[in-house]
Amino acid sequence: MSSPARSWRRRLAEPLTPRDVAQAGLCIGCGACGAGQGALAWDRFGQLKPADDWAGNAVPAFDQFCPFSPDARNEDAIAAERFPAPARRDERIGSFEAAYVGHVAEGEYRAGGSSGGMVSWVAAELLRRGLIDGVAHVVPVDPTRGDRFFRYRISRSVDEIGEGARSRYYPVELSAVFDEIRAVPGRYAIVGVPCFIKATNLLRDVDSVIAERVAFTLGLFCGHMKSARLVESFAWQLNAPMDQVRAVEYRQKNPDRPANWYTAHLTLADGSARWQDWMHLADGDWGAGFFQNNACNYCDDVMGETADIAFGDAWVEPYSSDGRGTNVVIVRSPEVQRIVAEAIGERRLTLDPVDADFIANTQAAGLRQRRDGLAYRLRFAPPRLPLRKRVAPGGEALPLRRKLIYRTRRRISSGSHRLFATARALHWPRLYLSWARLALGLYGALAYLRGPLGRLVGRLSDDDRNSW
Question: Do both 322 and 360 map to the same domain?
Fold first, then answer.
């Protein structure tokens, strides 16, 4: 019997289409293919995918700019072109001029953001200096005026940029942004997760207008993409009628609590609010992979290796306990590094230089998932398109417990989509929530050695690590 990858290779004698990538379970929903074609639409799992007739047609140069195309250049090749003479190079975090930990010292950037305020500050500083005319970033929108809670927008003032502060774990896409950039001359910055920035850079290669007008890219460290169903799960668990939810916060900030204590917060139509810490939710463990896009199983970029500057959370002590929020920052562009260094000298930014080991340690779990975990997934569950990854299939020598963790994560991510869709269709939230609690219990036993099952796993395990 031929493998899925071989069958897709036979099909690839014809031009690759957006529908091919979506049907292979590898569409991340970035929207690069939808520019000039039509917006992406929701699928039954709450993910944005190419829709309508155009998705099955050959889009010019699509195989060159889709971030999950077998023929697209990988992150190393893109970075080598974008940053040809980096001061430093590390295989875990990419090419860079400097790396920092800290926060914005001026204004309300730190208080207004989920972390240290650096993303909004850099975007606003580029605008203040006249280096760009607009910033493409994610902002909240009124769900009664459409079918979503967040979308990309091009902001053209510092105040508008501030409206996009905070983390948004929600599907968004760039098709309208690229259409506006093509239609309105100017210089633009784009803020996005690694695969969105990769798509932007690949599109620059084949679209001269995008290449001329996209001046800067701001990357966000990424664990994985969630579906829109996470918001509905919040609503089920907080006893909030979904048709009454008007606003969502994934990380309600509280300076008196540790930064890594996430709180889900829903605002309802009558002005009331419901909230709960993620740790008390049935699907509140990020690492378990609930509602993860399948394409994330085959991504190897945690830290935006093709972006001019990339930002993450400082998930190490003492920073993770500081509820005011702290960023780690990787500056890859010499031009952006000059701006950051000048602001540090003026005490507008409170940033301390760090090395690659420090940065990697703040994202240790994500790197394990995208290195050892990816190698193992490429062996036991190869993608349905012949992707060319920087990580080779492997994992045979991994401890058994670690293999079980990677398999369980994958089962949880795929199972959560199906179980939630069934529960939603049947108007039976308990079906999904009961399954989610059981799945989380199993994951907790394997990953953290929790409960009686965890103690048994610990006694039998060939690896006594209590966190993954």
Answer: yes
